Amino acid sequence: MRRLITPALLLLALLAPSAALANKDGAKHERPKRHLVWVYDDNGDGKLDEAERAKLQADKAQRKTARKAKVDGNHDGTISPEERAVAKDVKRHQRAERKAERLAKFDGNKDGSLDATERARAKAAKQAAFDKNKDGTLDAAETTAARAAARARVQGK
Ligand SMILES: [Ca+2]
Ligand SMILES: [Ca+2]
Ligand SMILES: [Ca+2]
Question: What residue ranges do the domains of the chain occupy?
Answer without folding.
Answer: 31-154
